[in-house]
Amino acid sequence: MRRTAARAGAGPIVDVPAPEAAQGPERTAAPAPAPAPAPVPAAQPLRTEFPFELPRGYVDDAGTVHRDGVMRLATARDELIPLRDVRVQENPAYLSVVLLGRVITRLGTLAMVHDGIVENMFASDLAFLQDFYRQVNAEGHTRAAVECPHCSEPFEVELGGSRLGES
To answer: Which pTM does this prediction carry?
Structure first.
């Protein structure tokens, strides 16, 4: 609406509709305000390291048994670099040994973990670590949500296991 000034002696000021605000069927309504965006849930930090316990344990030169360790998520580089290793080219089964030597960041009190340590592990520990690697890198975690068949209570199970036969 706009106000028009009264001419001398014409009377009081009168409200007159502005031309652009004229009422009628051709008038379009003002656009409704956009709805407020839904709040974004806080993102959980990405878990990149996973603890494990070997079924038997690695025995070092001093006879110390190392069972608890940590494995990190593998990168594309971790999976590509071993392919250039001569030992892997001669024997493809050696790939998992070199790969595990790259992604295991801690094992007991050892200062460093490398493929030489992995190749001297017991076969049951190597099998455990290969399975653990697949679970961590393929599914992203080693836990699964399940429901009790008796009481229907939800809970999580650790798929990686901490002892031989628990995977």
So the answer is: 0.59
Reduced to 3 states (helix: H, G, I; strand: E, B; else coil), residue 18 is coil
What integer pLDDT is reported at residue 149 of this predicted model?
87
What angle (nearest 5°) sits at the alpha carbon of residue 22, between those of residues 19 and 28? 115
Residue 127 corresponds to which tokens in the numbers above? 């099998």
CA geometry: angle at 110 spanning 167 and 141, to 5°?
A: 30
- Token pair listed for 57: 């344990």
pLDDT at 31 over 80: no
The Cα 117–Cα 35 span in angstroms is: 59
Burial of residue 41 (CB within 10 Å: 0-12, 13-18, 19+) is exposed
Query: Which tokens is 86 given?
Result: 């001569």
Give the H or E element holding residue 138.
none
pLDDT tens digit string along 5-21?
A: 545 555 555 555 555 55
Give the E-state strand segments of 73-139 in sequence order: 104-107
Q: How far apart, in Å, are the Cα atoms of 142 and each of 35, 130, 134?
A: 40, 13, 9
Q: Give the residue among 76, 48, 51, 78 at the shortest CA–CA distance from 132.
A: 51
